[in-house]
């Protein structure tokens, strides 16, 4: 009987070995295949070696705030100066994420549980309100909008002058990104649902893009609505342009996070899976 089994086991091992080889090749391809930009766009590394890079915000004076989305009180906010120095300005956070410049200071959320949204200004930190896994934050300069990466999660509006916290939507399924356009339109993502919605003051919210792979952050600009995918492999950056067409701008990303406008025709993108910040731009803007 043992002699009869030998050819069977040899064939089984050969098939297993071939399958394992194909898997390793595929995994390596997904891991190391370079990011690819659509026609009319170019991409390059802006800054690398930043573990768990996530939220980005420009200070208006050439500096860049960067969050390191690390849990259990080990998260940090860094600042990249115009001359290239990277310094720590705030620590002791739990998965800091969702940053905006607000009234001369920096507002940041914390995704690591029921924790405060913080306002850093003039070297002091102030608690604005508390949320459960706050990830995305947006502002029009008067009020703040925030979304909870929770099940269920909420879409919130906070008015600092009065201290009023309003719930715009509840029962969300892992909300991640929120963005306010100059014309007042408010967009948000639900990662598990794979869609982006436009909030409506009356009636049901409108799905503007669906069938996405873990949509994370959104950013409204003059080019349209930018959407990043927070997938470990094969993530994309998409643009819902002003004509309503959904374009794929970048592919082969790993855990894309915040995208923000740097200047006319150029953007900064946090790619957490490769610990770096990318610059995306039209060729004339490099």
From TrEMBL:
Listed name of the protein: Strictosidine synthase conserved region domain-containing protein
Lineage: Bacteria, Pseudomonadati, Pseudomonadota, Betaproteobacteria, Candidatus Accumulibacter
